[in-house]
Amino acid sequence: MHRFASASSLPPPPPAVAVAVAAAAVAARFGSATPWGSRALSLTTATCAWRRPHMRSSSASASSSSAAAAAVEEARQGRKQLGATPQIFEYLLDNVREHPVLRELREETATMRGSQMQVSPAQAQLLAMLTQILGAQRCIEVGVYTGYSSLAVALALPESGILVACEKDERCLEVAKKYYRRAGVAHKVHVKHALAADSLNSLIDCGEANSYDFAFIDADKRMYEEYYELLLKLVRVGGLIVIDNVLWYGRVADPLVNDLKTISIRNFNKKLMEDNRVNISMVPIGDGMTIFAAVWLLTIAHGSYGEQVNELQMGCFMLASH
Ligand SMILES: C[S@@+](CC[C@H](N)C(=O)[O-])C[C@H]1O[C@@H](n2cnc3c(N)ncnc32)[C@H](O)[C@@H]1O
């Protein structure tokens, strides 16, 4: 098991956790204490992005590459929790509340090609909890696959709630729709069978900017930045956006891995660190999720936000200040 270096030899801890409830939910599931007192799952060398690159030897790089390969293989076998031993994964699974229809869907998905793409039960439970604590009525998912994460969100929505589910693959959607019906939530899910960027742009064109409470991005990695910008327009101030695979099987932390998807996620993560339109929390659950809270009002109030403030958001600001 990887051990942390002493606190004094470490760079500063990751940015403050902005979404306290979400962080608490994750922390409750994780084991080893970190030097700065928060609790996070003990990570492999490949996933310790906060270690300084110059501290790493070439043998560390080789072992981090094989750790990434092992993480992909584990995900393929249905054990999608970066850095967790099979024993910890089983324990996590035993401590997730999973709706019986979600379980059936997970079992069917496990027999299908690409099953490693599905979020883990613990991730789905976190998405459902965020939906509930936000009191969300209007949600968007980008990348449905067979519907596991979207079904978890749809189950958490009230009867009047809607989830816009964007997916380009019709065969995956057939599986998803079957399970939406089986769980009695099909009326809440508005399926958009198209390229996700086109679907999001058409929502904006239809005047739906600033009207969504919650969004989950889990599709093509090289489009993350575009989805993020489109969803920042669609999600209201104070809403949440969650994005999956930000640790990308640990590859983002390995300077020797430079394929296009890894570079794209690494650049996206860097951009987020510098983006003061949002509060962020990168959570090492599943393959890593970053939770963003849109905080435009806060940044406007501090005078540090200078562009892309549309009239609707300014309207919200005016209302809030009266
Ligand atoms: C990682 S999977 C989603 C997994 C899903 N969230 C779950 O937990 O089961 C990514 C999905 O995004 C879809 N996808 C990829 N590129 C897309 C695009 N440009 N537009 C719409 N869907 C896309 C793929 O077909 C695939 O089903």
Automatic annotation (TrEMBL):
Protein name, please?
Answer: Caffeoyl-CoA O-methyltransferase
Keywords from the named record: Methyltransferase, S-adenosyl-L-methionine, Transferase
Q: Does the keyword Transferase apply?
A: yes
Pfam families in UniProt: Methyltransf_3
Q: Which organism is it from?
A: Zizania palustris (Northern wild rice)
The record's section on InterPro entries has: Cation-dep_OMT (IPR050362), SAM_O-MeTrfase (IPR002935)
Q: Name one GO molecular function term.
A: S-adenosylmethionine-dependent methyltransferase activity
Q: Give any single GO term for biological process.
A: methylation
